[in-house]
Design a protein that fits this description.
The protein is mostly helical. It is built from 16 helices and no strands. The longest helix has 30 residues, at about 240-265.
Length: about 325
């Protein structure tokens, strides 16, 4: 891209007109594109949370949904992935493990199992909502220092929101909901690893999807073939297969995978986790008409706390004005 501040020869009138009259028409900035990518990802992740809850009532089993989730992107992107095969193979084992475990089979099965034991609101709130807290823990472990100010307050609100969600199931004890909530926390921690891992690889979004989906699809296929994971694909309803192909394979696996990887590169891992501030609200609103879920008092308290916490945790302090040395 040519810098606009350089001296140039006066162009012909036809070439000068539009730019001279409208100096603001220079396209979107990389940061704006990253934010737009996150907003689309929010809607897709809301659909993921709803499908995680709906899976328990469908004719598909978790392994079937995983095969659709990781298989369709491979089929669609096969030619592009073949051209990137050397770049994908060159990724270091550490970052590759973060990506494959963080958004692959372990994450997928944890999110699906947690959703079957709780509700769509829990999936949409705990999984993306806790990501900023887990990402901050990873950054602290790397020596980035403890969160302070509004970031620390935001992380505290996120934790308080999760406590508000599960508190009513502690007394009396509801083992299913508590076990499901714990599993969703594991899924959120895994997704934080994926978020950080994306920043550590020199791959474009298509290559990142290949790095994630190929080993994940292979692992699920082997687990199904060996009987470790049961499959009901042969007897599943066509409508269920189509639904999960669209939501999981096309939406989450392909579109959200491309957009989230793009946003990570434009905005960074910590800022990209702000997606969690909108996802819980979208899930709660959509779960009412689509799944017939009625928001409980715990959801009405916990979701706003998590949302506010994610917003605060991702605020960037304004730079302080420089004070002259002689002042």
């Amino acid at each position: 891209m040519v810098a606009t501040h350089t001296t140039r020869v006066t162009p012909p009138p036809a070439a000068a007109g539009p730019r001279a009259g409208h100096p603001g028409r220079r396209g979107l900035t990389p940061q704006t594109k990253g934010v737009l990518a996150l907003l689309v990802t929010v809607s897709i992740w809301a659909a993921f949370a709803l499908s995680a809850r709906a899976l328990s009532a469908s004719s598909l089993l978790p392994a079937d949904a995983a095969l659709l989730r990781f298989g369709l992107p491979l089929v669609v992107l096969l030619p592009a992935l073949w051209r990137r095969r050397r770049a994908v193979a060159a990724v270091r084992p550490g970052p590759a493990a973060k990506i494959v475990c963080g958004a692959g089979v372990p994450f997928f099965l944890a999110a699906m199992h947690g959703g079957s034991l709780t509700s769509a609101a829990f999936v949409g709130s705990i999984v993306p909502g806790m990501v900023p807290l887990f990402v901050s823990l990873i950054m602290v472990r790397r020596g980035h220092g403890l969160p302070r100010g509004t970031q620390a307050a935001g992380l505290a609100l996120i934790a308080a929101g999760v406590v508000a969600l599960v508190w009513r199931y502690v007394v009396p004890v509801d083992t299913d909901v508590l076990a499901g909530s714990g599993t969703l926390l594991v899924a959120s921690g895994l997704w934080a690893l994926y978020t950080v891992g994306l920043r550590e690889v020199e791959l474009d979004p298509v290559g990142s999807i290949g790095l994630l989906c190929l080993p994940s699809f292979t692992a699920v296929g082997l687990l199904v073939l060996t009987g470790v994971l049961p499959s009901g694909m042969a007897h599943a309803a066509g409508s269920d297969i189509l639904l999960f192909l669209v939501v999981q394979g096309l939406g989450v696996g392909l579109c959200a995978g491309l957009l989230y990887a793009y946003a990570i590169r434009r905005l960074g891992a910590e800022r990209s986790s702000v997606v969690g501030s909108l996802s819980p609200v979208a899930v709660v609103l959509l779960a009412v008409p689509l799944l017939g879920e009625s928001p409980t008092v715990a959801v009405l308290v916990g979701v706003p706390l998590i949302t506010a916490g994610v917003v605060l945790a991702n605020r960037r302090p304004r730079p302080r004005p420089e004070v002259p040395a002689h002042a």
